Amino acid sequence: MSMLRAAYLIARKDLRIEVRGGDALALMGALALATVFAFAFTLGERTMNTLAPERLIPPVLWTALAFASLVGFRQGWAHEAEHDALSGLRLAPVDRSAIYLGKLAAALVLVLVLEAILVPVSGVIFGADLIPIAGPLTLVLLLHSYGLCAAGTFLGALVNRLGRGESLAAILLLPVAVPILISAGKCTSAALAGRPLGEVRFWMVLAGCFAAVITALAVVLFEPLLEE
Amino acid sequence: MSRRVTEILAAVSLLGMFLAVWMALQYVPTALAADGEPNPVQRIFYVHVPSALTAFYAVGVLFVGSVGYLLTRRRGFDLAALAATETSLLFCSIVLITGPIWAKPEWGRAWTWEPRLNLTAVLWLLLLGMVLVRRVSAHRDEGARFASVLGILALPVVYLVYTAVERWGGLHPKPTIGRDAPSHDPRITLGFGICTLAFLLFGTLLIVLRARLAALEERIGNLAAGAATGVAP
What we know:
The complex is a heterodimer. Chain A is an all-alpha fold. Chain A is 82% helix and 0% strand. The longest helix of chain A is centred in the middle third of the chain and has 30 residues, at 97-126. Chain A is globular and about 55 Å long. Chain B is mostly helical. Chain B has one domain (7-24, 43-176, 184-217). Chain B is 77% helix and 0% strand. The longest helix of chain B is centred in the last third of the chain and has 44 residues, at 186-229.
């Protein structure tokens, strides 16, 4: 079985679990919306009326996404901890990186579904008209969500095996994902302001490089994470 | 490293640190601010920059230790990585404390959106994460593996963070020694060189001592476990 096929099967299994009664997406959505509302309340009406949406939405959106997606990053690995399912996966005659890539794909789908809800809600709350800029905004969200998921899935695997180290996921994800967060802020802001993405080409390239480097490193370093 | 070498290293770094303090406070001439006024605050530079260099040097040791451990699984590499992580965290903390002390009178504010500041803060957080990962691991070898994985991840991440934050531009002074910059008073170059050397030696000493301490802790742990089960280690 090819590695990509194995990864696809693992992702499909995880998403099937989620569809048939998982609670990851519900938890992620609730946490993300709570974060957005917490921002709206703490910023207050005056700040929200003074600042343009392209300055308000990027930090709020990406803070909410980063913290909410942590739930998704852990959930995929938590499934495998039950009944020691991970041992079964480890024994399967496929490249072990397939497990990482499968979990990454499943996490990415969850995060994209979350964004499909969260982004329009943020647009309404902070007063941005998203329809004319839907194209560039989607591109920006896809690229940066992938980078976030590539780093988060890997750290989720690590943290999930630590047992009592849950909060470490956030402590580690922030420094590792800093390039993605900076770039996401810049690019989302440009997209929301209706500026051409060519203006933020440096950041798009940087986010792409980050995604490629993290994916490659994760594939190489995944083996020692899985040992008993 | 043998006991003898460690003792010599300890003696040399002790003398070196005294020399460094004397040079930073007494020997080097007081720098002049842009308006020509004497600027004694600038002397913190002789602690700040050597600490930063030592922190980066320890990250290098951490990287080598992490790669070595994952490839060979020899305890020695892991002990070196552990010691280097904590030493780097210490010097990173010194950098983060001395920097704002200098910046407050110089820039008028202690912290700005500035590449090097943010890079150091991110590195500090990452190192703290590595220390915590070892702490919360149920088993020593598990913590060693996880910390090594993070140690290898750290280097490219730090590079990308640097690229990202540098694009923001900033106020931080760029390195001038060894570059095509207006030449310095030779006392400044010498003072900076001695300070850097003293800090690097002291950093090395801390790494060696911490690694040795960790090795002893492990040995005691093994002995205690052996005594509990009645099996000689």
